[in-house]
Amino acid sequence: MRRLIKLLVVLSCAAVIVPSALAKEKEHPLLPAKVMKASTVYVDCVCPRALAEAREAALAALQSWGRFQISQDRHETDLVFLFSGNPYLGDYITRDGPDTRPVFIESTIMTVIDPKTGASLWTDYRRWGSWRVRGATKDLINGLREEMENQIKRWSLDDILMCSVTPTYAGFSQLTAEEALAKSASGTEKVTGTPDRLLLTSSGAPDFCKQARFLFSPGHRIIGYQVSASRADELEMGDILQRADRFDFNSGKYANGDQVYFNVQSKDKKLLIEFNVEGHRSILSQVSYFY
Hints:
Elements: H1 2-25, H2 33-37, E1 40-45, H3 53-65, E2 69-70, E3 79-84, E4 108-113, E5 120-126, H4 133-151, E6 153-155, H5 157-162, H6 167-170, H7 177-185, E7 190-194, E8 197-201, E9 211-216, E10 222-228, E11 233-235, H8 237-241, E12 247-253, E13 260-266, E14 271-278, E15 281-290
Parallel strand pairs: 1-2, 1-3, 6-11
Antiparallel strand pairs: 3-4, 4-5, 7-8, 8-9, 9-10, 10-15, 12-13, 13-14, 14-15
């Protein structure tokens, strides 16, 4: 009986330790901001024989995802997705000619590369053999998609509204650029930039607006501030629609292209939330606050 009790204790401890260890193995470092904010991607492939299916499969998976625009020029893109059978050597922009290493198609490797520096920003692989290159490629794209979606900052409308009442920005109303820079020198907020483009950074502001660009009137007085969002920021439209009676809605196309926009403005004209529209998705672009 004593031996049985000891065995049960050991098994109970193992049941606690093993899941914890497995959870630790699944932890991944955060994706770099360059990946999270990217809009365009070029797909490249060092793909002899059966590995040649990787590029076509990657393009199909990316089009289905809809997160990136596909670039046709590796020099004019935010990211490069490189598929290969050998590990990346970091030489994408420096190597002379193609990779000449022998390729044994055991693994499909995906490397996300910074096209300006050649640095690897993220990499993963599937050791599924030459018969499952297409499936491995799709799974790698889905793996990156999951990582990115887990890192998206999902803001609520209340997060946005908190920035309109924070004391951090109130003291800069109607100041000139020179006065704002002088005020920054003696306070806890930091104002940087040129007189026509001033940025305020403050650890005391709400999370969404810890950094903002001041907006000026024709008379060169500060009349508000603007927070730029990235592809890593998300604001659900449903949160706005629940309080639709507080806002006016407007949409159209920018004058310089086919890009569709969607704007939400408060009835008192003190808040303007701007979205870009891609397909059926509304992507947060920027939020402007006026005194």
